[in-house]
Amino acid sequence: MGVKLKHNANRRMIEGKRVVLVDDSIVRGTTSQKIVQMVRDAGAKEVHMRIASPPTRASCFYGVDTPEKSKLLASRMSVEEMADFIRVDSLGFLTIEGLYRAVGEANRNNEQPQFCDACFTGEYPTRLADFEGSDNVRTLSLLAASGS
User: Which domains does the chain have, with CATH numbers?
Assistant: First the structure.
């Protein structure tokens, strides 16, 4: 119901045509499924989707509200499987290299990426202590005895 409140398909503009939908990302895929179905119900002959980011494969721990990795479509499916899941005729994503070129970089420095791209690559700029286990974490305390 929520998708239908935000989006409407104009049957006269869509019926019998090939449609290309463009979105910023696919996270779980449920919204994409509903939009694709709405366009198909309006009579589209074909529905293709292009995504203006690389596939979101990993959770963000730095402020973007993304679900746990197991709920991210791209973490458990290939692009072809995702296309089948959301029921499009074709699906394409911006590559990580294309993303870096789009922001003015010649390429991604794989040794030290210029930007945090962990949600796309799974390569986090800091250690994820909560996921590595507490025996790998050094705890500092301001309350520790200082010898005085």
Answer: 2-136 (3.40.50.2020)
